[in-house]
Amino acid sequence: MLAAGEAMRYGGPKQVELLPSVLAALGRTSIDEVIVVEGAYPLDGLHDRIVRCEDWFVGPGASLRCGLAALDTGATHALVVLADGPELDPLAVQRLLDHASDAPVLAASYDGTRSHPVLLARSAWAAVPDGGGRALPASLVDCSDLVAPGDVDVRPLRDEDQRQLERVADLVRDILGPDAIGAYLLGSAVLGGLRPESDLDVLVVATRQTTRDEKRRLIARLLAISGRPAPEGRWRRVELTIVVESEVKPWRFPPRFDFQYGDWLRDEFESGDLTPWPTTTNPDLASLITIALLGNTTLLGPPPATLLDPVPHTDLVRAVTGGVDELVGRLEDDTRNVVLTLARIWSTVATGAIRSKEAAAEWALERLPDEHRAVLVRARAIYNGDTEERWDDLAGRVRPHAGHVVTQIARLTGS
Question: For the whole model, what pTM was predicted?
Answer without folding.
Answer: 0.67
